[in-house]
Amino acid sequence: xxxxxxxxxxxxxxxxxxxxxxxxxxxxxxxxxxxxxxxxxxxxxxxxxxxxxxxxxxxxxxxxxxxxxxxxxxxxxxxxxxxxxxxxxxxxxxxxxxxxxxxxxxxxxxxxxxxxxxxxxxxxxxxxxxxxxxxxxxxxxxxxxxxxxxxxxxxxxxxxxxxxxxxxxxxxxxxxxxxxxxxxxxxxxxxxxxxxxxxxxxxxxxxxxxxxxxxxxxxxxxxxxxxxxxxxxxxxxxxxxxxxxxxxxxxxxxxxxxxxxxxxxxxxxx
Length: 270
Hints:
The protein has about 270 residues and is of the alpha/beta class. The protein has one domain: 2-enoyl-CoA Hydratase, Chain A, domain 1, CATH 3.90.226. It has helices at about 5-10, 35-50, 75-80, 100-105, 120-130, 155, 160-165, 165-175, 180-185, 200-210, 215-230, 235-245, 250-260; strands spanning about 15-20, 20-25, 60-65, 65-70, 110-115, 115-120, 130-135, 140, 180, 190-195. The strands form 2 sheets. A 6-stranded mixed sheet has the order 1-2-3-5-7-10, sandwiched between helices. A 4-stranded mixed sheet has the order 4-6-8-9. It starts with a helix and ends in a 9-residue tail after the last helix.
């Protein structure tokens, strides 16, 4: 396991620890915190460290303003030649994206402080957290359908339990964007607050959790995950295999090209 000093040296996903609360911040503001290969790796490392550290009792995940996470860096991950397997089609043993698995296996309660856009895999990351608070500047959406893909395990595994199957189907099949007020109305977030109050709200909630007995916190989270959601691996296996198939389609290529060229896509079903 890396040292705390090594964790604090990360550039694209920063890590801070104070009062038993780890704050993990996606730190590519110029890219609206889109995840490239290095950012995916650093996020996985930060989540694994937080889970293993005896000093950590609660985790806050957020982004450097102006965004929470705008999903994959389309230019680097989907449109460019690939130097190694894409994160969504990783050949690791587990049938779940490595960073997603690190979040799902994190033994510490996780709070998403959604400070701006949480789009595509950014919304998935929010779903992997146990609790969500949104800034009034937040915009959220599962945009995978717009790229000719299905979502990662979060959309299938957790979204229906959080907002209900019908609303989850609507969000996944339309790719619609919604704001913090709607997120609070449908129960996706527990609270929508003024942007400047977001981190104070998240830290106050984390502090109320962190003052409790560490082992009880751990097992309470395990019980909630076990009995609320079940095992994500079967869903993850299907999702990863389906993403592999869809990435070979012309519609996926068209969705990516349309995004890069800032135009409306023309999908053909091929």
